[in-house]
Amino acid sequence: MAMDWRAWHDQYDLADSSLARRLKVVQQQVGAALDDCPPGPLRVVSLCAGQGRDLLEVLDGHPRRADVRARLVELDERNTALASAAVRAAGLDQVEVLTGDAALTDHYRGMVPADVVLVCGLFGNITDFTAEPQPLAAGDSMFTFVGYGLLKQRSSDAG
Span 152-158, mean pLDDT? Predict the structure, then answer.
């Protein structure tokens, strides 16, 4: 039976769920990463973005909101419809939501190198991966979640 990724996101609405707790941690880290970026325009990409809650809910009230140009890539059309609605509701005109396979590099054309890359939840759904993800730009930040609580943050010091 195929996973229903739209229904899976319903757990975020349950305040005491592990996903709701994880989302708060991710949002804190995303906000901190935006705060730490140098002044000026920022590019953010989110792979397997789901409904985009990790970024969109942060951007809605963040002081760097106008600096951020973002692209969220998600395969599930129901999730991208919800993310697109959230983008419109928040007036985040500089955020694109793309329905597509996050593994296809063409989806990131014009957005890389990125300042912040979100890969939240992806690696917990891959049973046999051996490579650590690599940052895309000097001074960037990448966030991944493995399982339901281990946050890995990689930030490049090169540049």
Answer: 48
Hey, what domains does the chain have and what are their CATH numbers? 5-155 (3.40.50.150)
Per the model's pLDDT, the better-predicted residue between 133 and 77 turns out to be 77
Q: Rounded CA gap, 141 and 44, in Å?
A: 10
- The total of other beta-carbon atoms located within 10 Å of residue 15's CB is 8
Which residues neighbour 62 within 8 Å (Cβ) at sequence distance 6 or greater? 31, 34, 68
Read off the pTM: 0.77
Residue 22, token pair as written in the block: 């994880």
Place of tokens 């005109």: 93
Q: Tell me whether the omega of the peptide bond preceding residue 41 falls within 30 degrees of 0, making it cis.
A: no
The percent of residues above 70 in pLDDT, for the chain, comes to 68
